[in-house]
Write a structure and sequence with these properties.
- Helices cover about 30% and strands about 25% of the residues.
- With about 725 residues, it is of the alpha/beta class.
- The strands form 7 sheets. A 7-stranded parallel β-sheet has the order 11-12-10-13-14-9-15, with helices on both faces. Strands 16-26-25-17-24-23 form a 6-stranded parallel β-sheet, sandwiched between helices.
- The chain contains 20 helices and 31 strands.
- α1 crosses α2 (about 95-100), α6 (about 195-205) packs parallel to α7 (about 220-235) and α16 (about 560-575) packs parallel to α17 (about 595-600).
- α15 (about 510-520) links the parallel β23 (about 500) and β24 (about 525-530).
- The chain binds adenosine-5'-diphosphate (ADP) and zinc ion (ZN) (2 copies).
- One zinc ion binds near residues 430, 433 and 471.
Amino acid sequence: MQANVLIEIKSKAIDKTFTYNIPINLKDKVKVGIRVLVPFGNRKLEGFIMDIGDIKTEYKIKDIIDVIDEEEVLTEELINLGKYMSRKTLSSLISCYQTMLPKALKASYKTNINKKYETYVTLLDKNYIPKTNAQKNIIDNIKENTLKSDIYKISSSAYKTLIKNNVIKEEKKEVYRLNDDILKENSNIVLNKEQKSVVNEVIKDKDKFNPYLLYGVTGSGKTEVYMHIIDEIIKEKEVIVLVPEISLTPQFVSAFKKRFGSIVAIMHSGLSDGERYDEYRKIKEGKVSIAIGARSCIFSPFKNLGLIIIDEEHTDTYKQDNNPRYDAIDIALKRAKYNNIPLILGSATPSIESYTRAKLGIYKLLELPNRINKKLPSVLLVDMKNEIKKGNKILSQKLIDEINNCLINDNQVILLLNRRGYSTTVTCNECGYVMKCPNCDIPLTYHKTHNKMNCHYCDYSTFKMKKCPECQSEDIQSFGLGTEKLEEEVKKIFNVNVIRMDVDTTSKKGSHARILNKFKNKEASILVGTQMIAKGLDFEDVTLVGVINGDATLNIPDFRSGERTFDLLNQVAGRSGRGTKDGKVIIQGFNLDHYSIKYASVHDYVSFYKEEMKIRKSLSYPPYIDLTLIKIVSTDYNLAYRESVKIKEYLVKYNIKVLGPSSNINKINNKYYIHLVLKYKKLERIYKNILYIVDKYKLNKKINVEIDINPKKIWYN
Ligand code: ADP
Ligand code: ZN
Ligand code: ZN
């Protein structure tokens, strides 16, 4: 018997299986999906068994050295999924499997991660009469699951005597590192009619493949709906729930922990490799029934999967933006189909693509059009052009008045500004020189806390200059508004406690939760933050949301900038008035006539969708056609540009429509990125050509060609 083995090796050239002989002594141990050790050249490498059989080759083949796993780490489902993913993302098969598995299962990690054991003590001889006080003390303290370490310290000599006389016994048991058993709380929430009908619709077909789009406005009770459906499913099967990012959705996650207790595994990006491996094993061994996590949680190795839920399905992070560039929604569809189960995509602002699919009947549309028991907040647009004339540079008079109003009534305020740092550019007033990052060719942002100028694309950081490097003038000024300056300004005006939440204040583990807890406990009246605060937060005393520079996202040169603006405004507006009190929203900006802002201000997704679709159609963008982004990356700009022109010429020969090469110099971390965008109706039509390009540059050391099929962002990194 022979086996085809996919070798775990980091080489662009080797991405195929090799055939090995199965020696007699391993005959019963070699199974599809386990890892084995094989000779490769003069090395010993690990690999996955892909298939087994009488495999004929003309080459002399070697024996498998040993098996690593007893049970398969890749199920048949995951093996097929990897092949699909590799084709779909043009990435090596091994990189796809590595993405699916926790790091602990990689060859290089094996020695570091050991399963963790602890010694427990049990009482063997219940009739034993203790000879000393210490012995009695030890025996009295032995209960269910008693740790040796707790007993041993009473008296080590008495302990040893009891062991020797077989009165007590030691036992090694595996422990899982995260054992925060939260007490389950029963919910007394009774679903309303709309929620019930959504739940019933999904449950009645729970053993069939059905993708649903759950379009429910903010605060319509989607989370509650998910939990009721899950209640049903976990009677027999298991559930995967994806969220954009665990640390940004603490309330969502804790609601699940409270409702379902210890049968929930949380795949948090803050977990150590060991903790992650523990959570993974709980899933694999069926010790939990629900896995909640970000993108990669979609690969949870449940054997009896019954439902997949993707919350905030429109979020960009569901697609990985490095290789393999898989889309979790695409993988979810594949898994739901394989297992014959429902997939629920939930959002208050579905992606244009998803809503189109729902309209076409590819997804079934489920709707929750109303907030639980109340109205959506009223939204006011404030044109800052007029305010600036009056001398109000940052906050409009209207916003100041409303904040005061809020504070008087002991309510809370959220202020969104999607720009971190103190100011956005540092400029010389004498000659106009703009301080730029030497690695990225992008303006540096001033951070007052450390008096430094930072690049938001790479790690470059330098003290703020006192003199202009061009003309030596000392008249240096910073322009533009970031969250740091906004925080300072707000503190000055209102003289209340303000907390800021952005990348700079949340770099430490657990800091998200700390900030949000402080706000929840009303230790601060105003929360200032970037888009980080736009999603999922549910604070009942927040009755005002203010958006500063609400039109800023429109300036990003991407065909999705209107959609992103609508999403962001709609999501952040949704944080206001979620409790019993009514909410208000104020959006400030300079260009508020844009349809994405107008429709966000009246919570009208459907009109926004129609308007956006007209534009997508006239400019020929998704969902009317599909895109592939080719990034040509090199430290040598001229080389990258020349090659991009060649690639374009090659594609045009095959009548493929290509935009670019992008003319703006896009330097990130000392590498130049040149973009080509391909437009087409069917991927099959261009697939061979892309494959040819990948192959051509695979071994090129000076140029990297990255392929992003259905990119979430074009032009910029
Ligand atoms: P969404 O996920 O759509 O934003 P949530 O599920 O978080 O909405 O619900 C918003 C709030 O309403 C939550 O505080 C939730 O506990 C509450 N809620 C949800 N459904 C009901 C219901 N049927 N009756 C009463 N309160 C509900
Ligand atoms: Zn100057
Ligand atoms: Zn930089």
